[in-house]
Design goal:
single chain, alpha/beta, Aspartate Aminotransferase, domain 2, binds pyridoxal-5'-phosphate, pyridoxal phosphate binding, NHTrfase_class1_PyrdxlP-BS, PyrdxlP-dep_Trfase_small, transaminase activity, transferase
Length: 393
């Protein structure tokens, strides 16, 4: 145990709460070797497709071991521009409207650092991805949580935004489809949100990392709606759709003045994303769509299974329209989210995350990630059923 005190740690960092997910993983780690099925980690169970790995190996063999342009390799930015036009109907110039980042995580960090003054308010829908609120606190801005509800399939509504809005709100953080709820918005709902953003002059940070994992209906990007491209930073990456979490590669697209502000922070911090990851990402965008469709089909099948089983067991679960998360309620079986998650782990060795890890609006729910093999998922569902039946006795 080190004797160094924490007097050198910055106050706002010391004040950051521990991630609820991390706490839970520590519990899971203690059960190593006990046949735990984890539905906890939000990560594809697939390995990055071989041709993508091969592209990285080839790049190394060719001696590509240097820095790239701060904005990222021009060929990759061109491929991103083509992809975003074809899939989202939004045109960005590769020269100055796209920046390649170290995952969506870095793009988010750059955006908060580039756009938030101390005291600025950032609205975000909640339950939400665990990093948003801490990232906002780290730049001395304030988070304004906007609740989403199971009764709306966790879609964000313009009414909820209006009710939560306070003077000083400058940014809306959107994540559709959403981690942890799988909720998303259809075009009409998104149009109402866009109108609200224009009315209140909000900048939108749109994290669309799960857009390729949309199972029902089509995904619409808010950036594609009239009057929105000029006030939106579109954030995307390779981690989820291409099973590339460990490569740490993503990007942001937006108006050149805003990308330039993000670039200023990036050039003095990260400088550029790894060239090896950029080469792999280029191969993924150019030749990886069959892999994406195959993986999406498998997630779709698993989603249908887990949602059906949750509802049969008595854990009311809406059908997530996208992502690889189900977010059932534990209220119907008379348990809090923590009682369910801890009891299930201890008695039946299945790990799910208590919904409160994603903010107070996650109370009464747990997150189960179905990026786990179908057979494993069947066993996990059987174990959950046993646990619930046991608890009823
Ligand atoms: N945004 C959301 C909503 C996520 O769920 C995650 C990872 O779980 C990230 C961003 C981070 O993505 P990346 O691996 O590209 O940094």
């Amino acid at each position: 145990m080190s004797t160094t005190s924490n007097r050198w740690v910055a106050g706002h960092v010391a004040a950051l709460p521990r991630s609820g997910i991390r706490d839970f993983f520590e519990l899971v780690a203690k059960m190593k070797g006990q046949d735990v099925i984890s539905l906890g980690v939000g990560e594809p169970d697939f390995v990055t497709p071989w041709h993508v790995r091969k592209a990285a190996i080839t790049a190394l063999e060719e001696g590509k071991t240097y820095y790239t342009s701060n904005l990222g390799m021009p060929e990759l930015r061109r491929a991103v521009a083509t992809y975003v036009t074809e899939h989202f109907g939004v045109n960005y110039r590769p020269e100055d409207q796209i920046i390649i980042t170290v995952g969506v995580s870095e793009a988010l960090d750059l955006a908060f650092r580039a756009f938030c003054n101390p005291g600025d308010k950032v609205m975000y829908h909640q339950p939400c991805y665990v990093s948003y609120h801490p990232s906002i606190s780290l730049v001395h801005a304030e988070g304004v949580a906007v609740p989403t509800y199971a009764k709306d399939n966790f879609a964000l509504t313009a009414e909820a935004l209006r009710a939560a809005w306070v003077p000083g709100c400058k940014i809306l953080m959107l994540n559709l489809p959403c981690n942890p709820t799988g909720g998303t918005c259809d075009r009409t709902q998104l149009e109402a949100i866009a109108a609200f953003c224009r009315e209140k002059d909000l900048l939108v940070l749109s994290d669309e990392i799960y857009s390729e994992l949309t199972f029902d209906g089509t995904h619409t990007s808010i950036a594609s709606l009239p009057g929105m491209q000029d006030r939106t930073i579109f954030l995307h990456g390779f981690s989820k759709a291409f099973a590339m979490t460990g490569w740490r590669i993503g990007y942001a697209c937006g108006p050149e003045v805003l990308i330039d502000a993000m670039m200023k922070v990036h050039q003095y911090s990260m400088m550029c994303a790894s060239i090896i990851a950029q080469e792999a990402a280029l191969e993924a965008l150019n030749n990886g769509w069959d892999d994406v469709c195959e993986m999406r089909d498998q997630y779709h099948r698993r989603r249908d299974l887990i949602v059906r089983r949750f509802n049969e067991i008595g854990l009311t679960c809406h059908s997530p329209r996208g992502s690889f998360y189900a977010f059932p309620s534990t209220q119907g079986i008379g348990m809090t989210e923590k009682e369910f998650a801890i009891g299930l782990l201890k008695e039946q060795k299945v790990a799910v995350i208590p919904g409160t890890a994603f903010g107070v609006n996650g109370t009464g729910h747990v997150r189960a990630c179905f990026a786990t093999g179908y057979e494993q998922l069947v066993i996990a569902c059987d174990r959950m059923e046993k646990f619930v039946q046991g608890a009823k006795k």
